[in-house]
Amino acid sequence: MSADEPAAPRVPRMDPVHARAWRALVAVGQQLPARLDAQLTEDAGVINVEYAILGALAAAPGSMLRMGALAEGSLSSTPRTSKAVTRLQKRELVERIAGADDGRAINVRLTREGLRTYLRATPPHIELARDTILGDLSDEELTTLAALLERVIGRLDAA
After folding, report:
1. CATH of the domain at 78
2. The pTM is what?
3. Rounded to an integer, what distance in angstroms lies between the CA atom of residue 63 and that of residue 71?
């Protein structure tokens, strides 16, 4: 290289341990949603974000939540939740209801068909999670995995 040529830019690198962990985390982040969506679509005609919405509503008092609380309960953004609720509403799995004390607030309520869909989806969903994805991990490994992922989630939430 001559004195007139610019130096090649230095690209930051991870050490091998960090790189391995990062690649594994990214791979799970890419593969898991697709696998969950495929299973839920096949077994109940919903995708994972819709299943999470149905589950949050099934667990809520009166099977109803405000849109913001529903987004939080389904671990999704409010716009993404709103779009998913629109899809679910078109299939009569949920209904939107204006807030009684604030007409601008939107409540979402689970319908009977929505509950049936959630209940139909749950056994194969649990089977996929328990037997296929987590199946060969010991209780100790699962406890460690949960603790590590909770730390990562905490960092993401704080960022």
Report:
1. 1.10.10.10
2. 0.85
3. 14
Q: Highest-confidence range of 85-94, 96-105, 126-135, by mean pLDDT?
A: 85-94
Residues 90-101 have a mean pLDDT of 89
Residue whose C-alpha is closest to residue 55's, from 63, 45, 43, 66: 63
What is the DSSP secondary-structure string of 108-128?
EEE-HHHHHHHHHHHHHHHHI
pLDDT for residue 15 is more than 60: yes
Range of the domain at 75: 42-158
Residue 99 lies in a domain: yes
CB 16 within 8 A of CB 22: no
Residue 127 · residue 40 · CB < 8 Å: no
- What is the rounded CA–CA span in Å between residue 11 and residue 6? 15
